Amino acid sequence: MQTQTDAASDYEFIIQLVYARCRIRLHDGKQQLIKARLGKRMRRHGFETLGHYCDYLRRTGDEEELTHLVDALTTNYTQFLRERDHFEFLVGTALPSLLGERKLFNVWSAACATGEEPYSIVFYLAEHFPAAGGWEWRVLATDISTKALAKARQAIYSEDRLQSLPEEWRRKYLQRGQKNWEGHYRVKPSLVERVRFQQINLLGDYRFPELFEVIFCRNVMIYFDRPTQEQLVQRLTQSLAPKGYLLIGHSESINGLNIDLRCLRPSIYQKA
Question: In this predicted structure, what is the pLDDT of residue 69?
């Protein structure tokens, strides 16, 4: 029989494992969340207790299973046009201040979850920097969760997820589902093609061939401690173009970190 001490040790093992892999800190009190979200993985392997599941991970170091574990425990809440002022800033201030006569630029959605953020970026760019005007732009969308990325690549959303989009944009940029897909919409393929999806750990080993005029990394750092936040922002800054902009969540702050960015307004920073 598993004792309370054993159970506490198992939860701490999971907490430390997630922290080691992606620096997300599952605080005390998350035991029920861990148990609920890992239940499917335990049933798949036939494990009756969390202890048996933890023993399997300790014994095998199964990388595929560790990926599933991170997928299950990382939160992927998002919505279209969330914190809308950032998209207005992107097209109204950031890009005009950087581009001059250039028609080519790149934007990175650094924690894209199920795709609502990068597609919101795409809709705004299609409105203000249309291909018909000779504009060439690409959006990189990354996330640590392979499950969330699969949903993002699919680009299909139920009607209730689209309430924040203007009706005109639904007609211009989305395709209405028929028959079995009634009540769902798909982002038009010509827009999906503008997005490159990639699975990465933001604190892992990665490098991109391009620099980005604007990076969105919103509502992610609230899960990190201050040293990890500083490490992440330093990494992101390396991928910013000169004078490029980093946008973080409205509830986040990176003031006081040792970073090469200046705060223009809450949640908006520019590379020095």
Answer: 86
